[in-house]
Amino acid sequence: MLAVRFHPKHLGALYKPVATAVVKVPNLSSLTFRSISTTPITPSPPPDIPKHNKPDRPGSSDASGSSLSSSSNLVKANDGSVPVVKKIRKRKVDMMPSQRKVDGEDHLYDFNPPNPFFGELDSTLTSHRRVTAKDIAAREEPPTQVKMLVRDYIDDHLYNPQYGYFSSPQLEIFTTATKDGYDFTSFQSSFDFENTVSHRYAEYVQLEREKQKARVSMGEYEDEIGKGGQQLWHTPTELFKPWYGRAIASCLVQDYKLNHFPYHDMIIYEMGAGNGTLMTNILDYIEEVHPDVYERTSYRIIEISKKLADKQKVVARENGHLSKVNIINKSIFDWNERVLEPNYFVAMEVLDNFAHDLIRYDLETGLPVQALVVTDYTGGFHMIYEPVTDPYILQYLHLRALLPQPLCQSPSLPDMYTRFPLLRSIRAGLPFAPNLTKPEYVPTKAMMLMGILRDYFPHHRMLFSDFHKLPDAVEGFNAPVVQTRYNGEMIPVSTIMVRQGFFDIFFPTNFRLFRAMYALIQSLPSLTEPPAHLRFTPLNNPTELSFISSNPTAIPPTFFASNPPVYPGLPIPSPESLVRPVRNGSKIEIYTHEEFLTMFAEDPSRTRVKDGTNVMFKWFENASFIF
């Protein structure tokens, strides 16, 4: 089930497969419902399986209403007999979603699994308490017997203050052996530079092994992988310091002098500043090259990690910039202060760790469903589906529908299926045909950030950089890479359902879609607080959008049409507004990594090796900038 790059004996240290259900319904021909789930276990020595079977919080209930599950979650009928399944087509193998009422709740059963050899699952999974990442932020250990949106599961996995991936004491950001970085002109070739970087990685691995031996000798024990093994990654900011940061500073100063100097101060917000290297390089450049601008510069860091925030303060003091730096230790999603001055909002390699939601489409009806991750009493994970009711997912789907083709179209639902419903029905009737499309990961947290920037930073200019393409991703559209570091090597796996805090989860960014969505959001009324009961209406008039409490899954028939409908209160953006936000009136450009650095690098010769290759320009070819 996992595509991993190490000996099979290590598989048990990551996770093991658990049973999924196969239900035989009398008087129907071979109707099967199945799904897949995984249970992570602690590497040797493994933890004891809990002896109790009590809910995490007895008496808690799901305030969200209906809950529809995948095939792994089968609930017996009230009289204890074999479950009755409604809306079933009689055919050899029926994989269409089927629904039935149990205790007032509709339950949806899912799709063809990747592996047909499963046993039976716990039938109580859908009754587990529903939580968000904020609800469990104070927990010291991952919760059991709960369910949450994929967005909340990823947030909890990465950012939980106690056990999240970015809270691990073993987490390190790669940096060069010397404070001033590499002397690139001394390398014979790009291959020579790669070898030097590899040796630097080996030094980190060796140092970590020595630390672990010391801990073991003192009677301490830590797992070999995950938090017990050093988690290390590199960024262009660290690899190519100070020249990468100085190129970004050059871009910002050029725009500042063109648009704001001398009438406004230069205010820079950096979200997720890591080791503080970019801050140092930017302020060093401004102080050395533009001292008149430096006098009017304020550098403000928004950092969710307490550990990194403390480190950034030390770095600012050591480099003489403490008077210019203000470190705000909070999540950008908790921001509640309006900044009315013109400012620059910078984020390097941050978008990739923004949580996404997972949606799929019913191939018979074309309706979307949202995924939830359920944790059973053993800590095992299961994925279930329900109609889209989350206001942020609804909001994202509505806004995307307003964009021009092909951006308004879901990549998981081919255009021919939206135009010709008969094709969907024919496909759904085929033996072994899946009832849902492939997973699609939608950037709901990135959409929230756009609303925060518009509402609280109305005069901002953004400069973001991140990956537009990633290898070794899990299955699905816009799917993430899930990986951990084991014995000095990065090991990608094939599922997002892995033990909390042990794995990095990061996504590619579709910058064309990001630009169009960003520009649209800048032109609309406030989206920071979405309505709690936003619903698609099933009315015959497909242009009407209203707030209703019934039929939450009904979508107008033209929702996925080539010409998107006009919704009252949500104006169709003009082509000009798609590249020119209404609020700040500035053009949004997308650059490749090399294009941006070619334009703004202070001195390209400083990162050119002896064979003529500019390693700063040529590395990270799967990254882009948006400004």
TrEMBL record:
Residues 60-72 have a biased composition (Low complexity). GO terms for molecular function: protein-arginine omega-N symmetric methyltransferase activity. Pfam families: Methyltransf_28 (PF02636). Residues 36-81 are annotated as: Disordered. Keywords: Methyltransferase, Mitochondrion, Transferase. Its main location: mitochondrion. Its EC number is 2.1.1.320. Residues 49-59 have a biased composition (Basic and acidic residues). It catalyses: L-arginyl-[protein] + 2 S-adenosyl-L-methionine = N(omega),N(omega)'-dimethyl-L-arginyl-[protein] + 2 S-adenosyl-L-homocysteine + 2 H(+). It is found in: Mitochondrion. InterPro entries: NDUFAF7, NDUFAF7_sf, SAM-dependent_MTases_sf. Gene3D superfamilies: 3.40.50.12710. One of its GO terms (biological process) is methylation. One of its GO terms (cellular component) is mitochondrion. Belongs to the NDUFAF7 family. This is type II protein arginine methyltransferase.
